Every structure is written in C-alpha cells, then in structure tokens.
Amino acid sequence: MKKTIKLFVLSLLLSGVFVACNSNDDNPSNNDNKGAVNVQITDAPFPIDFVTQANVGVAKVELKNQNGEYVTVFEGNASYNMVNLTNGTTETVTTNNVEIGTYTEAKVTLNDASVNLSDGNTFDLSTEAQGSYNVTIDPPLVVEDNVDSDLLLDLDLNHSFTFSTNMFMNWITDVLDITGCTFDADFRACDLDQSGKIEGSIKTSSDIAIANALVEVNMDGEEVTTLSDSNGNFTFIGVKPGNYTVHVTTQNNGEVDVQNVSVSVSNTTSVTATLN
Q1: Domain identity same for 84 and 171
Q2: Do residues 183 and 203 both lie within one domain?
Q3: What is the predicted pLDDT for the residue at 170?
C-alpha cells in the first residue's frame, strides 16, 4: 500500500511555505502499500538586512528506503527564494505517494543558486550549487497506512551562503562591506511528525525586543541557527525530542545560554532569553 508524503523546504533563518508540485496518483489501484509524503524546505541566519534574494534551484529529491533503494519523490525545475522562508515558515516542494516503510536518507539535487543584495549587486552561484547532497533523515521518516507523513528539508542559510567582506567583522553592518559570496549547501532532514518545536523571544532586562540576534541549538553535534525577527521572536521546527541549550548572541547586548530546554514529539517548548 502507498501513502502520501509531503516534502517541505524550510529555512531556519527565514522560513516560508511553498507548493512546487503535486504528484499524487489518481488511480486507487496503484496506491496499494503506499503512503503520502509531504516534502517541505526551509533555511537559517545570515545578513538578512542586506539580502533581498537567496535563491536555490531544486532539480530532484530522492528518499532512501529500508532496502537501500532511492525513490524519486520530486523531479523538475523549482526555484525558491529562501529569504522568504524563516522562523518556522515552510513551503511545500511536493506531495507524492511512496511505499509504506522507513526512510533514513534524502538525496537533494540542486541546479542553481544566486544572491541579490539590497544595493543591486548580485552573485551567480549556479556552478557551485550544481550537484547532489545526501542528508540523513533524523528522526527517520516513517510512512504508515492511512496516515500522511511530513518530511522537512532544512537548508541553513547561515552555513550555506558564506559572505566575504573587505575587513574582518563579526557582524555585517553595511551592504557595501560585502565583496563576495560562496555557496555550499548545508541541509538537515527530519520527520516532522516525530519532532517538536522550540519557539521563544529575546529581549533586554527593560523588556525591549532584540532583533537579528543569532540563535543556535546544537542538534547531535550540528549547530542549527536562526535569527530573531523584528519583534525578537524565533522558531525552530523539526527538533528531535531531547534536552537542549539555546545559545543567543547579539551585536550589542552580549550573549546568553538558556539551558535544559526539553522538547517532546508534537509539542512546542517556549523559552525567553533576557540580556542586558
């Protein structure tokens, strides 16, 4: 039997939701022993104030089943501006039917990438972007009968797009300081239905929201990042159940750790980080 999965693309720095295609099979006889999978995409933090577009072209998404075979769930030419995908916002890449079972790895093939700055300068990164990226799905994607499954692909913008400047600096404060950009995709993937969420706010001791703070969570040795929005809020979705430390770094207010943040399946954990 087949069930439907939905694939989402997310950006942790910025996240938004999009539907790239719908590949459901209309013939019920072909859906035996198959499940529905939704595929989504998203990203993470970088000099967001000076970037109007951070585009990524997705050509193909494959899932590795328990027999070691790759199953194609999306193939086409879809482009996404990851700047529109932040803090828990996702866009649907595809909805497709796959065999019931457990999927442990995703293979994402990209064919394009580019950056547009607020001053009109652009960087064509298509040559660097072209290629396939193997990503462990953790928690693994479990596709069951009569249950829709959601797979999250999280592209970390902060780690994928690296900006060069005309001098060393921890924070880019002027678009004119940006002299170049390189691209090396940094993905993570997880079963959204087996994950939880961390959301929170960052403020001063005077209760003033802090925007553009860098927020980091270490997930099994991998630093996953996002930026607080204009209201000082942030969101991590697709967080594996467990205990975490949320590390916050600001440009002018120092840094702080929020420890013992417990995440459970399908639940949202709220935290508040207060700085001077």
Answers
A1: yes
A2: no
A3: 80
Residue 86 contacts residue 131 (beta carbons within 8 Å): no
For residue 81, what pLDDT is reported? 95
**Could you say which residues of the chain have pLDDT below 50?**
12-29, 43-45
Phi, psi of 192, deg, nearest 5: -60, -30
Q: What is the pLDDT of residue 10?
A: 64
Give the residue numbers spanning the domain of 206.
196-276
Cβ-Cβ contacts under 8 Å for 82 (sequence gap 6 or more): 9, 11, 13, 14, 41, 42, 43, 54, 55, 56, 155, 157
For residue 60, CA distances in Å to 71, 97, 106 come to 11, 15, 10
Rounded Cα distance between 129 and 107, Å, is: 14
Q: What is the pTM of this model?
A: 0.84
* Contacts with 51 (C-beta within 8 Å, 6 or more apart), sequence order: 83, 115, 116, 117, 118
Contacts of 270 (CB under 8 A, 6+ apart): 199, 200
- Check the CA dihedral 265-238-78-53 and report its sign: positive
The pLDDT value recorded for residue 1 is: 65
Q: Which of 126, 161, 123, 112 shows the shortest CA–CA distance to 14?
A: 161
CA 25 to chain centroid, in Å, comes to 27
For residue 36, what pLDDT is reported?
80
